[in-house]
């Protein structure tokens, strides 16, 4: 009986917890439909409009509120995330593959890799800027910032792949080897399809983390802004609802990405199932 | 004959191991080199530069401890250090207090696996919005004319808007708690899911009440989750500067904010000193937490 009361109150608490998580975003989304350009970033909504969405794309008559510099920043951010995703996934898969055998010094290597996600961005960013200064290298988003993004996302890819390979049935590989298939071919035809869902997750992780990363980018990217840096730039000035409209759009983009991931995941699982059935028949 | 057979055996036995370690080396090399070049080198450089000589707009590689002395004799820096430690501790406790009951409910009381997964996904969804946007989203909530004040006034609970909600230490704590509590809930809920239900049933059959079960079974078994969550939250909060910049109106200066300001005014050596202090703080915290739980075993 007592447990019933506790269950009820914990349930109510969890509902409140979810409201706490979602309320700011809901409010932000509502306020993004504030009228412009005189409507402010707070209630009440003077008049519902899509003014700030048009403002983002430069479709409104010029006003004293500067548009967000998102055009080129968006292209840069996407390119940076794709580059980071590819490199960190490759590194993650290869090093997780290495960890399948015991080797001396594995503890040190493990913590060296995991350190990449532990060290705050502002620290590596500062260190990288200092190294670049000392060596006389120009800082760019595709250079100094890119390598730091990989430092950050590669540990995630590594841990995901490690978890996948921990549950991996090695006998399929051994069967392939004993049938005289070369290790490279075995990896391509047997191992890789089996770990593909993990690879997909690692890629998703790397892409989203890099797309949203700004503390490493701040010092290391030089003059050209990425998307998060463009948003960070609005922190010091007065906030207008155009930032809110932009927040809604990026959130929708993230969900689209999540949708693509879910579809790819479903397809790969279905394919794995089909292969399994064929083999049984 | 016998001897040659054994040597042949040892040879074949040794050979694949040797081959394997060579292969392992090649598989590891790219990642390890990347981390050494782009993670370890920058941190070492930061330590090195913290001993350089800082003049108004320039640093020269003449070694000195002047910047260090400046750090420990300047009130701004020292108070930033205390603020960082204070906010870190408060946020750590608040994410735990706010997150644990939710994790307890989802992990233990929701028996339906589908609903359980749905609730966990619901907790993770806000994480999909840009971090900076999530920080900014607190401004229209907490302001003097913000949503919370409007609602409280509308309900007649208060008659004057609560001004301390925005541009204060409180707003930074509220914002950080919401943004980081997911990282606390996740590991704890994961550990809850691992608890064998039959232990709890056995305890119930023996007549133990909820609080007793909670204290002697659930809490100890979820402790690794708490520690892992604490590592996540600590690492992120200690390196923070954006939330304080957006929500405190420059009233709260964390070590991260000091670094940003120093870099902005080209005081690289001072920035490096603050960076090293932050690294040390972080190292102590994470090392202490890792002593309690082995991260590799929890995977």
From TrEMBL, chain A:
Signal peptide: none annotated. InterPro entries: Bact_Polyamine_Transport, MetI-like, MetI-like_sf. GO terms for cellular component: plasma membrane. It is found in: Cell membrane. The keyword Transmembrane applies. Gene3D superfamilies: MetI-like. Belongs to the binding-protein-dependent transport system permease family. CysTW subfamily. This is ABC transporter permease. It comes from Rhizobium leguminosarum.
From TrEMBL, chain B:
Its main location: membrane. Keywords: Cell membrane, Membrane, Plasmid, Transmembrane, Transmembrane helix, Transport. It is found in: Cell membrane. InterPro entries: MetI-like (IPR000515), MetI-like_sf (IPR035906). Pfam families: BPD_transp_1. It comes from the Bacteria. GO terms for biological process: transmembrane transport. One of its GO terms (cellular component) is plasma membrane. CDD domains: TM_PBP2. SUPFAM superfamilies: MetI-like (SSF161098). Residues 81-289 form the ABC transmembrane type-1 domain. The chain crosses the membrane at residues 25-51, 87-110, 117-137, 170-190, 221-248, 268-293. It is a multi-pass membrane protein. Belongs to the binding-protein-dependent transport system permease family. CysTW subfamily. This is ABC transporter permease.
